[in-house]
């Protein structure tokens, strides 16, 4: 599923009356959301929800309260919505413990557990929904403690983590104790993290103060994706030492950050909160492959501040600057592949931000750069800091 087709909501005290769909998500799906949607929970139950518009915001209203009551949602719960098209969403529900909430009990008589069985009506296993409260479910006594782990599919073994400075998240990451319990403590000494583009990272698991932490290798992962305080990660364990990881920025919008260490797919770096749509991504990836640079290409979607006004400028994100702009140069030469002219732009450094100021405006003017055009900065192997700027016009991505 396209990584832009997810959004995350953390429930506040007023969540039951309505739920706001993030504006950026609505923009990403191109207005495909109708006035009635379907929410499908992990237990397979589907709910019809009416969508209304107030003050340019899309709200889940009629039908939402029934969904919230059925799954006993509470303040502090976190919901991950995955859009599958045609106004259909799949919803994962996480409790404040950061583990996915147990939903309803399912009949599991077909599962080859031949130990003593019981019929459970315990409220812990019957939730959610009064209409399903009287459905018996037969489970083996050995499975009661870890019912969720044993009787849900691989896709349901999830936990979430919010990057917080107090936890020293750039050096290590603690795995929630409840998740460790859910999997019966069966987490190996080394696991593999897979990000949405398919790239994988090997991480060592260590025990610290009666907790399991992602240690050796985690710092490289956190650095590669420039994790920041407030970033939000969803880990899905498929067994066999393998986790899939989805990353969201502090606004709960899917992160489009690319690996910054070593030139691997996709071979380019975008600013922290830039999200390329499908057409832009296709054009950029084609151009990056055609350029064939041994270094990452820096990708900038031109905004008003980049091209209009006497003080217009552009800035390289910290991930790119740390890797490629540490020469101490105070100017950069800019080239255009279809122009023999060379432009000299001043580099302004402030709080680790590298901006092109004077000289950049002339480049913008001479090359008729417009809002929405995509600039690809190709670092050259020259003694003086030099970049070729390839431009993909906005109209080629629509």
TrEMBL record:
Predominant location category: nucleus
Compartmental location: Nucleus
Single GO MF descriptor: DNA binding
Keyword Transcription: yes
GO cellular component: nucleus
Domain of life: Eukaryota
Residue ranges constituting the TF-B3 domain according to the UniProt record: 4-97, 158-251, 299-395
UniProtKB keywords: DNA-binding, Nucleus, Transcription, Transcription regulation
The protein, known as: TF-B3 domain-containing protein
């Amino acid at each position: 599923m396209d990584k832009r087709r997810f959004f995350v909501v953390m429930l506040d005290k007023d969540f039951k009356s309505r739920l706001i769909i993030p504006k950026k998500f609505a923009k990403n799906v191109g207005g495909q959301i109708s006035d009635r949607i379907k929410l499908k929970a992990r237990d397979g139950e589907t709910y019809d929800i009416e969508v209304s518009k107030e003050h340019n915001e899309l709200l889940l209203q009629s039908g939402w309260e029934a969904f919230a009551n059925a799954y006993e949602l509470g303040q502090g719960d976190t919901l991950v919505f995955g859009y599958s098209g045609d106004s259909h969403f799949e919803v994962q529900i996480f409790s404040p413990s950061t583990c996915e909430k147990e939903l309803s009990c399912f009949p599991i008589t077909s599962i080859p557990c031949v130990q003593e069985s019981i019929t459970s009506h315990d409220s812990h296993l019957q939730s959610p929904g009064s209409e399903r409260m009287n459905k018996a479910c037969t489970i083996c006594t050995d499975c009661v403690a870890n019912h969720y782990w044993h009787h849900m599919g691989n896709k349901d073994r999830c936990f979430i983590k919010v990057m917080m400075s107090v936890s020293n998240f750039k050096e290590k990451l603690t795995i929630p104790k409840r998740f460790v319990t859910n999997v019966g403590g069966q987490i190996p000494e080394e696991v593999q993290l897979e990000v949405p583009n398919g790239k994988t990272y090997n991480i060592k698991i260590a025990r610290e103060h009666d907790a399991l932490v992602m240690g050796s290798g985690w710092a490289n992962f956190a650095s590669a994706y420039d994790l920041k305080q407030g970033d939000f990660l969803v880990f899905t364990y498929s067994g066999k030492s393998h986790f899939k990881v989805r990353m969201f920025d502090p606004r709960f919008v899917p992160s489009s950050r690319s690996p910054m260490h070593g030139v691997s797919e996709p071979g380019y770096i975008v600013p922290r909160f830039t999200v390329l749509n499908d057409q832009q991504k296709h054009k950029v990836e084609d151009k990056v492959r055609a350029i064939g640079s041994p270094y990452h290409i820096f990708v900038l979607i031109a905004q008003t501040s980049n091209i209009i006004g006497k003080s217009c400028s552009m800035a390289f994100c910290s991930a790119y600057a740390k890797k490629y702009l540490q020469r101490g140069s105070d100017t950069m030469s800019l080239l255009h592949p279809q122009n023999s002219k060379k432009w000299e732009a001043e580099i302004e450094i402030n709080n680790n931000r590298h901006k092109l100021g004077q000289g950049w405006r002339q480049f913008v003017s001479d090359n008729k750069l417009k809002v929405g055009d995509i600039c690809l900065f190709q670092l050259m192997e020259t003694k003086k800091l030099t970049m070729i700027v390839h431009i993909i016009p906005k109209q080629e991505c629509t």
